[in-house]
Amino acid sequence: MPIKACVFDAYGTLFDVAAAAREAASEPGRDALAGVWSKVASDWRLKQLQYTWLRAVADAHTDFWEVTQNGLDWALEASGLDDPDLRERLLALYWELSAFPEVPTMLAELKARGYQTAILSNGSPDMLAGAVTSAGIGDLLDDVLSVEDVGVFKPHASVYQLVPDRFDCGPDEVLFVSSNGWDAAAAAGFGFRCAWVNRAGEPMDRLPWTPDRVLTDLTSIPEIAGVF
After folding, report:
1. Are 115 and 191 contained in the same domain?
2. 213, 196 in Cβ contact below 8 A?
3. For 55-72, how does the pLDDT look when each residue is reduced to its tens digit (9 = 90+)?
């Protein structure tokens, strides 16, 4: 079936999750962070994801903002940074993450070609609204779907089901795009056509499913959508 909707994970896919730590590290008086910002960003993201998985399997759901704060607290302690002001600054910047450079043009091209577009994210609705507004891409999206509608994090199948329900289509009419290999794999297992945006050149996750495409950025998504 031809692709009807192109749906994107948010954090790490459309929005640069390292931007908060990188920007804070460049500010005056942030010398302690400047030397370790990359580690803080990496640890923050890893723990954020790990806590979503653990909460999903333990049936202990909370919103993504709490998970984000928990992950940051672990990351700061791991780097020996006990600075409440820095913590608050990093959390504030997370609401204003920049989009990757190719995102606006890519989304505009999808809309010009007649595709419906959306976000499907672990993020809470208010967090996602902040990121979309900050990036200035709201008019290029038909919807922003959050796991809060089903009360469990990815990769639970009920999360992916939000997309066929919203766009009245089959899973094989959806091109799902994620920067997380596990997310792209699980979505492929659900039945979506999938692209993994592997910006870091990571190995393929050893899972029962694999994405249809592996990319280094989002530039070619409009062309890929037309191939299926």
Report:
1. yes
2. yes
3. 999 999 999 999 999 999
Number of structural domains in the chain: 2
**Mean pLDDT, to the nearest integer, of 168-185?**
98
The CATH number of whichever domain residue 88 belongs to comes to 1.10.150.240
State the CB neighbour count (10 A cutoff) for residue 208.
Answer: 8
- List 9, 16, 43, 183, catalytic entry: 9
| 9 belongs to the catalytic site | yes
Task: Give pLDDT tens digits for 24-39.
Answer: 999 999 999 999 999 9
- Residue range(s) defining the domain that contains residue 84: 19-94
Residue 60 CB coordination number (10 Å)? 9
H or E segment to which residue 2 belongs: none
Same domain for 141 and 74, yes or no, is no
**Shared domain check, 30 and 9:** no
- Summarised one tens digit per residue, pLDDT across range 102-132 is 999 999 999 999 999 999 999 999 999 999 9
Rounded-to-integer distance, Cα 106 and Cα 52, Å? 29
- Mutual angle of helices 84-94 and 64-78, in 10-degree steps: 140
